[in-house]
Amino acid sequence: MRYYLLEPLDTLFFRDGSPFNAGETGQMEVLGTFPPSPTTVVGALRAAFARRLGWQYGDWSEDIKKRLGDGADLGPLRFSGPYVAKDGEPLFPVPLHLLRSGRTLVFLRPGEAALSTDIGEGRLPEISTRTKGLKPLEKAYLTRRGMEKALRGEIPDPEDVFEASELWSGENRVGIQRDPDSRTTREDALYQTTHVHLKKGVALAAGVEGYEGEAPGLLTLGGESRMANLKPCELSLPEAPSLEPGGGGLRYTATLITPARIRDEGWRKPGGALPGLPGRVVSACVGKPVLIGGWDTEKKKPLPLEPYLPPGSTWFMEAEAAKPDEVKEMHTRHIGDKREWGYGQILIGGWR
């Protein structure tokens, strides 16, 4: 896997799922989203690689299709990320079982007693402290060092936690559509978008497997064809902790670092399963779904929005004691749909 940094040369704009049709009063502002979905970044990278291979416009040649795939078929390509990077080092969404109040960080863990719920009997996540004001860090990131501590079940240092506001800010832009005949603004054609302004040293990173050509240098990224510099980089993902069986079984966590769409409903309830992972679900901390669509460049229209599990979602799992190697084999692997696009990447951790 070769990794690349995508350093923006200007603000970036990635649409969320808000309606954006002329004449819909009350919908004149479109909020952006960040980081972008794997679909957006994969599309930008493939287009940049194609240009490097000689494509300018129209359909790709057969040679380019053989090397970069065609449409939804990625051919020999495999991707990971995108990751937020700061000073060249990747950051990772904070696992949702890590809570914070002020500078105090604590973990949620499955309670010992099973409770009756509307999805059956289950061990709900509990905290072992009376600290008030604890909340999940839904818009925060951990350094590699902090994530490795979290995967070991240790509390990360506060210095390893970055709020999204420390990494980027929103920047409102107002636009109009002009009537070429009257040279005035058209009716219902005033709109506002929210661009993302990355702080100094902040960029995106992504991994690519199957493309052996040179980095294109520049590429267009996101809405309004904003420019970014693409350059190779060295990037290391967090290492998995050692997993020690205890109490007759092997306890471990699986944490998403990119969005996932899992059609098997086993992830939803205690006793279920995650695709490819040994053992059964004991409990989970799952965030609100994120809606991901995209742009169909062939048909020139938006792709349908689909719900995905958000990064940071964490499952507490129990497997047979003899399977630590089988569990660790899944560290940094992908589960669910569109794995080759970078969706559903997980990190394995431990819990007691």
Give the structure's gist in a few sentences.
The chain has 352 residues and is mainly β. It has helices at 38-52, 62-68, 144-151, 324-328, and strands at 2-8, 29-30, 78-86, 89-93, 98-101, 104-107, 109-110, 115-117, 120-122, 125-126, 135-136, 140-142, 161-163, 168-178, 185-198, 202-209, 218-221, 226-233, 249-256, 280-285, 290-292, 295-296, 301-302, 306-308, 314-320, 346-350. It is globular and about 75 Å long.
How would you describe the overall organization of this protein?
The chain has 352 residues and is mostly beta strands. Helices cover 10% and strands 37% of the residues. The protein is built from four helices and 26 strands. The chain has helices at 38-52, 62-68, 144-151, 324-328; strands at 2-8, 29-30, 78-86, 89-93, 98-101, 104-107, 109-110, 115-117, 120-122, 125-126, 135-136, 140-142, 161-163, 168-178, 185-198, 202-209, 218-221, 226-233, 249-256, 280-285, 290-292, 295-296, 301-302, 306-308, 314-320, 346-350. It has an eight-stranded antiparallel sheet with strand order 13-12-4-3-16-1-18-17. Strand 22 and strand 23 (301-302) form a beta hairpin. It is globular, with a radius of gyration of 22 Å. It starts with a strand and ends with a strand. The mean pLDDT is 89.
Number of extended strands: 26
Give the helix tally: 4
Order of SSEs, N→C? EEHHEEEEEEEEEEHEEEEEEEEEEEEEHE
First CA to last CA: what distance? 33 Å
